[in-house]
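Why do we care about 3D structure at all? Because function follows from shape, and shape follows, mostly, from sequence. That is the central idea of this module. The next example makes it concrete: a single protein chain, its amino acid sequence, and then its structure expressed as tokens.
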Amino acid sequence: MKKVLIFSTLAISLLSCSQKKEKEMNMEITSSNIVEKINEQVKHYPKEPVYQVYVKNSLCVYELLVNDYPIANEREYGQQMTPFIINNAILKSGKQKITLRLYPAPAEYSRSGDTFSPNTSCKLEIEYVNKKDLNYNAVAVNEFKLPTKIRMAGEHNDMEIPEFEGAGKKYYEITYEFDATVPYENEGWSKGQDLTKLDQKLLEKKTVEFYNYYKNIYSSNKADELAKNEYSSLLRDAVSEYMEKTDIKEMWDESRSNLSVKKEWLPFNYRTKFYGNGKIIALLQKSESDVRLSGTSALAFSYKEDGTTYGSFIGVYLYLPEGKKLEDGLEIIR
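And the structure:
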């Protein structure tokens, strides 16, 4: 019993020390040094695999998640011709889960109304390329298709016609598994607490507080404050994609690009959404009239550039590290 108590005290002490160092590191980050600080942490390897996914959909729109982390939200019907890079959702080597959340294509593209047509299809092609390969040759990893059921037809009822298993439904979700091998290991949200088991009213309150705090950062053009908060998340992206310094700078420039524009904030109508198997929370648009807004961040604004109006949705994904109290607030995932 004594040994267990000593071990528990040591574990708590080490965790507290680790969190203190992380906090101190983030306090050192500024808009002017964030690129250099991230670049110092990125390692390079003899082989640098970058995993990517092609989605080939017909008569449906979709959300794509890897390890329950959102990768894509394609609610406008059309073909995605370029692949989605998914390394930032792959925290370490091993089994990975990839999830499709499907919705019927708009009525003008289908005769099935607001339900899936029997002819609905969606294929995932997973591959990787080695960044050290000058020819950038793609290597196939896996391919997944939607499950079908057989309908018998023909004059003698002897003709087999494959149809989508979800035909007639308004929503369909399926998860597949594939293996990935990467040379890095990111913490991400793996050491986060299960937010679904916490006080939900307090959780919502703290989440809204953080979103309002982030709105203030963007409204007041606080580049240093943004850098401190975005550092860990941008570091995960840079490490997982083996970025060069120029790539890191481009990533940071894009992240802060909307700080200085004149903003017209959209109404803050939100719904809560959990990701990361309950370890991540986000506030999404609560829109019943425009399906294109579904799955987009509740923190959003419009701005004008060269006479054209654009919309910007600020993705904020929060978690609560192990050992931290919810009363003390949430953090952006690492």
